[in-house]
Amino acid sequence: MKPTNIGAPDYFHKVVDCQWACPAHTPVPEYIRLVAAGRYSDAYMINWESNVFPGILGRVCDRPCEPACRRGRVDKEPVAICRLKRVAADLKEDIRPLLPKVPSRKNGRRIACVGAGPASLTVARDLAVLGYEVTVFDNGNSAGGMMRSQIPKFRLPDKVIDEECAYIIGLGVETRFNHWVGSLKETLAEGWDAVFVGTGAPRGRDAEIPGRQEAAAHIHVGIDWLSKVAFGHVSGISKRVIVLGGGNTAMDCCRSARRLGGEDVKVVVRSGYDEMKASPWEKEDAVHEGIPILNFLVPKAFVHQQDKLTGVLFQKVHAEYDAKGRRSLLPTGEPDVLMECEEVLVAIGQENTFPWIERDIGVDFDKWGMPVLNPVTLQSTLPKVFFGGDSALGPKNIITAVAQGHDAAISIDLFCKGRDLKQRLPPMTNLVSQKMGIHEWSYDNQVSEEERKKVPTKALASALKDIKIELELGFDPRLACAEAERCLNCDIETVFTAKTCIECDACVDICPTECISFTSNGEEEDLRGRLKAPAANRDQALYVADGLKTGRVMVKDENVCLHCGMCAERCPTGAWDMQKFLLKLAHAGAEVRRT
Amino acid sequence: MTYLSKPKLLRPDTPKNALGYTRRDYEGAISTLCAGCGHDSISAAIVQACFDLDIEPHKVAKLSGIGCSSKTPDYFLGNSHGFNSVHGRMPSVLTGAALANRDLIYLGVSGDGDSASIGIGQFAHAMRRGVNMTYIVENNGVYGLTKGQFSATTDKGSKSKRGVVNNDSPIDLVALALQLGASYVARSFSGDKEQLIPLIKGALHHRGPAFIDVISPCVTFNNHPGSTKSYDYVREHNEAVNRLDVILPRDPIGASYAPGSLRRIVQHDGSVLHLRKLGEDYDPSDRIGAMNHIQERHALGEIVTGLLFVDASAEDLHRHLNTVGKPLNQLRDAYLCPGSKALEALNASLR
Fold first, then answer.
1. Is residue B86 included in any domain, yes or no?
2. Contact status of B191 with chain A (Cβ, < 8 Å)
3. Inter-chain residue contact A504 with B3, CB threshold 8 Å
């Protein structure tokens, strides 16, 4: 194998699994250490720079970081990264003095953002601090978009959304609420330098099965119903409710129904439990609230007497996989199941819809009705129109919308300056030794052996009484510190200098997870098999260094390195060093020094 | 040295041996020796050997004397019996323990000072009496604990860290062990675990005195140009005569070798020593040939390593003394004090 180029930003970035998995590449271990140190405001600002909505994401993020967390590979559960973010938001002081200053002289460029969701607000924030005049349009009466209309208040209270949207609007972003943008053509005619479309995926998919029309009064599309609940237009539901669908929206529906008077609430899903789209923790929360999840049942008909819904008829199925691993759901042949209920919530997917964008103005759409975009620049076929969030590449999640907002902001900035949109700046990286003295490192390298801490919650009985009561209380400082200590500090990288190595094997002997080998070089496949412990996880890189006196190579399997620094502590010559790798994405205007 | 304990987290695919133990279960306290000490590698090799052999930790007694090397039993086999004895007196304490209970595996760990200087008499007699033990000397050619004076195994002409040349003749413990009747004699290098681990395994399965001289560089006082026990010097001058694989009776039959390239030696307990020849023909069953070979090569400045001599049919001290098979602490009063009639019979037999 070729020696690893540790100077390439991606190499060490990939070792920080959580940061690599985060669409916005939040420097996770960096802020977790600050949380452990009680520096909550600083931890918040690191998040705010990267992901814009720490308080919101600390409650409802889809957390791609947690399944990626290295701790999950050596321990039962990963670090509670998401909830530590919430700690930073909950316990911070007033951070307004830390927010960037908006230039008093604007640059004369005017940008319209359609929709006031996370993607649009990210664009607004990134551009406002550069001197752009940004106007955000939304048909609602406040900012937040789907974060406000879809996510139940017991998971995400309004005050958190209000606070974090206010930070952005406070940067001089103009808002036009209660304003329905009915035509992109007309908007473009208003002379904006660029238009950003962040209108989400506003249409819930319906269940087109017999009985849908007849019992329509008792069958609701999940996201529409959630938004009616969010804005107080719906405040009750029947005692027996069936929720169709296995995604996170279905989980929000069933848990909301439970709080609005539903006593017998069931979730019924076509697929098996493990294949459900909902995040594991959301499923667990639903089950914890006494909501059964029933799998392998395909809805066949809504059963009704006249226009009164009496139940749903389901066909029993099982999964079969063909040679290519594709799944099909086949009937088991058992008799159909009738489940009685008075109301049904349909949460089987969301779709994009752009009725307000004229098809003849130069914005092309593909055969699925999605805008044709450059996936990197997010520019549409009409150069001054950009997309982001669920409306760009299909429904995903908040953190992806934020990441796309950053990307679109870079594009808009370059576009307005007349530059090539593809000439984007690489991330800022920094690598600094953490050695303070003999056995002294600037980070706490003792690996915590504690289990993942549970977030304290309100007593379930009282929480179920009011849909506005936030269920989770968040970690207190003591729990937060204990949980933060579980972080392995994967950004404190093991850096090897072959020139000073005397091949004494001290690092090999001490390594608690047998990551380090000294052996003759070979092809990757061959090398992976004959290390001290076989390196079976191919997603994780091998760090190869040559230049040793014996002609062998040092090979380190990054997979389960605990970043404990034992190798560096036991190295007699300092050939191993623990160096902190910090990577920050270049956001819009990164090439200009801010004043 | 480090102040932290080793994290307990394990890799998800951590192998377990037949007893259900991981390799980590055979470790001891964290080492307080200098970072990079060869002794730590030897400890790691002992840990690996015991893990591979599925040895029950409570069936091992590890004994040592005084010195850096003799500290190491604290750093491996944390669940075994241990005795840190007087300087140079490990062999006699171990002999006593072995006489009292022959059921344990005896591992004596010593250094060049402990065995070649203050304890050389003890070393000599343990070898010639045929104590059933594995005797490992962690040989760095220097008194590390007292700041780097030459030891009795320092080669003539070798330089100290400050440039002083050693004028005294060295003691070669391997040559002594061969002469004194050790029935398993090997030399290895702490920086070559591939060679060292099988040698330790073979020794643990050997009946009789098994002696391994492990050259173990002292990074602090004896790892400089001019030293003949530095990492670089030993790597350059290492002449391995063979490669050993230890095959236990339960192991599946592995790879086949070209005829004539492999020598199989069956030990008393059924374990098989597979010796792959390296380079010229070397006969590990020829005691006198081994002594000659080592001396010849030493004169050329080479360090001969590998399994240098083995006598698989050797007898040990218990056989020579016809000792009782049961550990003494398991003998009942009736056996220990058979009564006046038995005494009379004994006395009568001596008249």
1. yes
2. yes
3. no
Q: Amino acid identity of B136?
A: I
Kindly provide the ipTM of the predicted complex, given to two decimals: 0.90
Query: Residue A595 pLDDT > 50, yes or no?
Result: no
Assign a CATH topology to domain A99-201+355-416: FAD/NAD(P)-binding domain (3.50.50)
Does some domain include residue B14? Answer: no
- What is the number of alpha carbons within 13 Å of residue A269 lying toward its C-beta? 25
Which helix (H) or strand (E) is B306 found in, with range?
strand B303-310
Architecture of the domain spanning A15-95+446-484: Orthogonal Bundle (1.10)
Paired residues of B274 in beta bridges: B245, B264
CB contact under 8 A, B35 and A445: no
The verdict on residue B145 lying in a domain is: yes
Q: What is the pTM of this model?
A: 0.90
Burial (0-12, 13-18, 19+ Cβ within 10 Å), A544: middle
Facing A570 at nearest CB: one of B2, B13, B232: B2
Structure token digits, residue A280: 């594991």
At B257 the pLDDT is 63
Q: Do A572 and B231 touch (CB under 8 A)?
A: no
pLDDT digits (tens, 9 = 90+) for A393-419: 988 999 999 999 999 999 999 999 999
The domain total for chain B is: 1
The fold for domain A204-351 equals FAD/NAD(P)-binding domain (3.50.50)
**CB-based burial of residue A457 (10 Å sphere; 0-12 exposed, 13-18 middle, 19+ buried)?**
middle
What CATH number does the domain containing B102 carry?
Answer: 3.40.50.970
d(CA A271, CA A319): 8
Is B102 domain-assigned?
Answer: yes
Q: What is the pLDDT of residues B97-152, one digit of tens each?
A: 999 999 999 999 999 999 999 999 999 999 999 999 999 999 999 999 999 999 99
Q: Are A105 and A131 in contact (CB under 8 A)?
A: yes
Q: Does A490 touch chain B (CB under 8 A)?
A: no
Would the CB atoms of B231 and A503 count as touching at under 8 Å?
A: yes
Instruction: Determine the average pLDDT of the residues in A435-452.
Output: 91
Nearest to A502 among B10, B190, B231 (CB): B231
